């Protein structure tokens, strides 16, 4: 586990997760181990639709051929170094897992606690928390020195065993050094103008949104990165990806889908699913409650988990804590979700009264009762 005090410390030294910094010795194997990573890898391979989650690199090139092979034959050992080395014929290698399903209840529960601590100290919830995993000894980041567009703050949890270097340039310095804002695939000559951070096993690094960076991983190591996307960025991305999907469907008849479109679409679907579950997709949905709340008890949204209402054509979905209900669209449902997300405290009877504008009393009672059943609302302490 990670001590909540360490999260407060990280928030303080990073100015609310905005400035680059490294918190040494923040977590142990008990929080996230190589065995957890192997399980996540296996969960990716278990679903045919997840092939685009996996990318394979040598020091110099992306290897789509190996992507297929690694996906079909995921590791069965937690010694990912020996396993990867044999798959890549002994050479240096890099494997990236983008937005993998975690499907590891114990780790998700631990991560969820950390996220709650992060949200509390940052004073904000985020639109989505995207996991990415980096495995190998591939030297510089395969994407070169770069700026991550449309990505929020990144927390890098370093498992090691190798030490990773992260080099960061502010925009002005980077432009002066490279002559522009394009990715730089030969960062060696400009490293002396960057700030260097060493990230060892058990360290957490905060990577800010601003500026440019490149990682250098000379010895085998595993990193788990979490991109915390602001809620507004999630909306922007979803909108952009809707458009990308429309373009892709036009293009697919001519040229097939390009890599960037595949990445855009898989990211949009990930965010969409995450939000639909309204659970940040990082904890398993709790089992439904059976008993009703005490009469007249004031109820409120539980913690940071939003109640989601969304309309699509002539249907609507109300969702909370990983459970959902399909309903006809109704203004009162949107109003109820808004009130709960704004932190309003209500009794079950008050919720029923609000919903009675659009639903029969029986239906209104059922809908409000479901929010309780799902643990989406809880008694105010
Ligand atoms: Fe990056």
How do the strands line up in the largest sheet? 1-9-6-11-4-3-2
SSE string: HEHEHHEHEEEEHEEEEHHEEEEHHHE
Bound molecules: fe (ii) ion
Mean pLDDT: 84
SSE-based structural type: alpha+beta
Low-confidence stretches: none
Largest sheet: 7 strands, antiparallel
Oligomerization status of the protein chains: single chain
Identify the overall geometry: globular
The CATH class of the largest domain: Mainly Beta
- Please report the total strand number as a whole number: 16
Tell me the number of helical segments per DSSP (H or I, 4 or more residues long). Answer: 11
Strand content: 15-25%
What is the end-to-end distance?
26 Å
Describe, in plain words, how this protein is organized in 3D.
With 381 residues, this protein is an alpha+beta fold. The chain has three domains: 4-230, Sandwich (Jelly Rolls); 232-278; 299-379, Outer Surface Protein A, domain 3 (Alpha-Beta Complex). The chain is 36% helix and 23% strand. It has helices at residues 4-13, 34-45, 64-72, 80-87, 105-122, 171-178, 231-251, 259-277, 331-341, 348-355, 361-373; strands at residues 21-23, 54-58, 93-98, 128-136, 139-140, 153-161, 164-169, 195-199, 204-207, 212-217, 221-229, 299-301, 308-312, 315-320, 323-327, 377-379. The strands form four sheets. Strands 1-9-6-11-4-3-2 form a seven-stranded antiparallel β-sheet. Helix 7 crosses helix 8. 36% of the residues are buried. The mean pLDDT is 84. It binds fe (ii) ion. Fe (ii) ion binds at residues 146, 148, 213.
């Amino acid at each position: 586990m990670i001590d909540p005090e360490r999260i407060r410390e990280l928030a303080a030294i990073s100015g609310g997760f905005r400035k680059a910094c490294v918190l040494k010795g923040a977590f142990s194997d008990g929080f996230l181990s190589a065995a957890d990573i192997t399980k996540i890898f296996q969960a990716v391979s278990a679903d045919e639709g997840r092939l685009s989650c996996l990318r394979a690199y040598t020091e110099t090139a992306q290897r789509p051929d190996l992507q297929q092979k690694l996906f079909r034959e995921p590791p069965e050992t937690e010694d990912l170094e020996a396993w990867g080395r044999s798959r890549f014929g002994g050479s240096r290698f890099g494997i990236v897992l983008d937005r993998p399903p975690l499907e590891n209840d114990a780790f998700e529960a631990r991560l969820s606690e950390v996220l709650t601590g992060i949200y509390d100290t940052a004073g904000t919830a985020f639109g989505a928390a995207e996991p990415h995993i980096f495995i190998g000894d591939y030297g510089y980041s395969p994407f070169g020195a770069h700026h991550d567009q449309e990505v929020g703050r990144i927390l890098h949890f370093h498992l090691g065993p190798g030490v990773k270097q992260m080099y960061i340039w502010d925009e002005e310095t980077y432009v002066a050094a490279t002559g522009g804002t394009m990715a730089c695939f030969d960062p060696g000559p400009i490293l002396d103008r960057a700030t260097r951070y060493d990230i060892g096993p058990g360290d957490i690094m905060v990577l800010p949104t601003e500026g440019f960076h490149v990682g250098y991983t000379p010895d085998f190591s595993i990193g788990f990165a979490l991109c915390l996307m602001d809620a507004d960025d999630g909306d922007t991305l979803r909108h952009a990806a809707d458009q990308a999907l429309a373009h892709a469907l036009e293009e697919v008849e001519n040229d097939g889908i390009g890599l960037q479109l595949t990445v855009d679409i898989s990211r949009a679907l990930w965010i969409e699913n995450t939000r639909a579950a309204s659970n940040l997709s990082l904890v398993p949905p709790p089992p439904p409650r059976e008993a009703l709340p005490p009469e007249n008890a004031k109820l409120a949204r539980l913690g940071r988990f939003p109640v989601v209402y969304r309309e699509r054509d002539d249907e609507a979905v109300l969702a909370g804590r990983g459970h959902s209900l399909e309903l006809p669209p109704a203004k009162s449902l949107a109003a109820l979700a808004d009130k709960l997300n704004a932190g309003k405290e209500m009794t079950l009877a008050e919720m029923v009264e609000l919903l009675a504008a659009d639903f029969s009393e029986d239906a209104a009672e059922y809908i409000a009762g479901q929010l309780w059943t799902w643990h989406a609302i809880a008694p105010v302490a």
